[in-house]
TrEMBL record:
Domain Glycosyl hydrolase family 32 N-terminal, residue spans: 12-162, 197-352
Annotated catalysed reactions: Hydrolysis of terminal non-reducing beta-D-fructofuranoside residues in beta-D-fructofuranosides
A Pfam family reported for this protein in Swiss-Prot or TrEMBL: Glyco_hydro_32C
InterPro entries, alphabetized: ConA-like_dom_sf (IPR013320), GH32_Enzymes (IPR051214), Glyco_hydro_32 (IPR001362), Glyco_hydro_32_C (IPR013189), Glyco_hydro_32_N (IPR013148), Glyco_hydro_beta-prop_sf (IPR023296), Suc6P_hydrolase (IPR006232)
Family, similarity comment: Belongs to the glycosyl hydrolase 32 family.
Descriptive protein name: Sucrose-6-phosphate hydrolase
GO biological process: sucrose metabolic process
Length: 511
């Protein structure tokens, strides 16, 4: 394949050719960090899934290793080796993944002694039809997240909740295939069931990693959680579970979650849920549900615990059912910067991994400016940079920053004081990105504080924004002119704003 690299980022992980999506199996093994990912190496389109493989010393500079899993078994050949997780056990690296056929999804295991070459066990290992429960739809049972607590292994997976075997063939909202069949009132008079197989998560456990038993569903209806989360027309994909700063967190990527106000504006979403998991029943008792990232391109985040105890998260920096401008360049798929996670004052905090600071060069600093109009600062430019801005909106109706600016191209990042909204507008950035959402190029987020601290990372075709120390984040891809679109301009409309400070660094990661 001839690959055009003009939109490839320089300090974000990305596939070298073909298609990639969900990150899988983040872990530290044999002195290296490993990130596996969903991959179709033969074309820049989703196809029969393989497991791609990145290796790194610091989670910033990545090397693409040989493909880890190839769908070469009969039970994998229809859809491939789909998402899953990685865990170290007895000095070996184990991968649990979903072997997907059109109407059947089962969990499998492969292992490696060197972290590069993998052998598959006598798979499939977990089949929903053999778990002594009718809760799980065998055709939607995927994305296992495996972890060990005390002496027991646990697995959280996404599914559609059913009630009994003869009610498992209803409309599939993902494939839109109508598979209804007739039933009578007598068939269901004493049965509680979800007619369309609403999305949920389930918990399994094992003492030996080989024999698994069903524990129960995680998401049972709670009065403090909105109905939309229990009537999901899809699957809670790519779950994760861990504890940080004394708080248990459940992460998931719900398909087709309905928009609520300015939240969940993308076709599919990513949420974090603080709460408590009952390992006896499987019940997860949520405190609330919140969106992880309020931008355009963020899906299927996965987390890992680093050797020093920090938790970091990486997500696929794309979104399903969009147009992909790099398809004609023969590659699709980038990943967010690793984000350090903490939990403070009842809120998830995300900050860029500190190792990124090792790649800073050419610092430019400016302080103490009152702006009414437009302003460019000498040396503050580029599209492979880190930009820190501390600004305060006083009398202006709108104030902010124009990034990736040249000619008619610009990306607007601003605060609308009248509407009390923080806005990320990429509609004038270059190539317009289409999708199934109402608007794929403007994202708005409620914000009341007139003083805003921003930390932004521009990387050729990528923009990640960390707001107020990581209390909120917004992520999006930008496809303009990567050679010319390097301008940075501050603006204030109908009044003044104060720019307390600006710092710019070039981020330089040598190939």
């Amino acid at each position: 394949m001839n690959v055009n690299k003009k939109y490839m980022p320089t300090y974000h992980a990305h596939v070298s050719s073909g298609w990639s999506n969900d990150p899988n199996g983040l872990l530290y093994f044999n002195g290296k960090y490993h990130m596996f990912f969903q991959h179709y190496p033969h074309k820049a389109k989703w196809g029969i899934m393989h497991w791609g493989h990145f290796i790194s010393d610091d989670l910033i500079k990545w090397e693409e290793a040989p493909v880890a899993l190839v769908p070469d078994q009969e039970y994998e050949r229809q859809c491939g080796c789909c998402s899953g997780t990685a865990i170290e056990r007895d000095g070996k690296l184990y991968l649990m993944y979903t072997a997907a056929q059109m109407d059947l999804q089962r969990q499998c295991i492969a292992y490696s002694e060197d972290g590069i070459h993998f052998s598959k066990l006598d798979n499939p290992l977990i089949d929903a039809r053999n778990l002594n429960t009718s809760d799980i739809s065998p055709k939607d049972f995927r994305d296992p997240k495996v972890f060990k607590k005390d002496d027991t292994y646990y697995c959280i997976a996404g599914t559609r909740m059913m009630s009994e075997e003869d009610l498992q063939n209803y409309i599939d909202f993902v494939s839109n295939q109508n598979e209804n069949k007739e039933i009578t009132i007598d068939d269901v008079a004493s049965t509680n069931f979800y007619a369309h197989g609403y999305g949920n998560l389930v918990l399994l456990k094992s003492d030996d990693f080989n024999n698994w038993e069903y524990v129960g569903p995680l998401l049972t209806k709670q009065e403090n959680i909105q109905e939309a989360f229990y009537r999901l027309n899809g699957v809670y994909e790519c779950p994760d579970y861990f504890e940080v700063d004394g708080q248990e967190l459940l992460l998931a990527s719900p398909q087709n979650l309905l928009q609520i106000g300015y939240r969940f504006q993308n076709l599919h979403s990513c949420v974090y849920i603080p709460g408590h998991l009952d390992f006896t029943t499987g019940d997860f008792h949520p405190e609330y549900i919140e969106e992880i990232d309020s931008g355009f391109d963020f899906y299927a985040p996965q987390c890992m615990k680093m050797t020093d105890g920090r938790y970091v998260m990486i997500a696929w920096k794309e979104m399903w059912d969009r147009t992909y401008p790099t398809e004609s360049d023969n590659w699709i798929g980038t990943y967010t910067l690793p984000r350090e996670l903490s939990y403070k004052d009842g809120q998830l905090i995300q900050t860029p991994i500190r190792e990124l600071e090792n790649y800073r060069q050419n610092e430019v600093v400016a302080k103490g400016m009152i702006l009414n109009g437009e302003l460019r600062l000498e040396g503050v430019e580029g599209n492979k940079i880190e930009l820190e801005v501390d600004m305060e909106i006083t009398t202006a109706s709108r104030a902010g920053i124009k990034l990736f600016k040249h000619g008619d191209h610009e990306v607007f990042i601003y605060y609308d004081q009248k509407e009390q909204l923080f806005v990320f507008d990429r509609s004038c950035s270059g190539i317009e990105i289409g999708g199934r959402e109402i608007d794929t190029n403007i994202r708005k987020m409620p914000w009341e504080n007139k003083r805003i601290q921003l930390r932004m990372f521009l990387d050729v075709s990528s923009l990640e924004i960390f707001i107020d120390g990581g209390k909120k984040t917004m992520t999006g891809n930008i496809y303009g002119d990567p050679i010319k679109d390097t301008g940075v301009e501050f603006f204030s409309e109908d009044g003044e704003c104060i720019i307390h400070s600006v710092k710019k660094y070039d981020i330089v990661v040598e190939a």
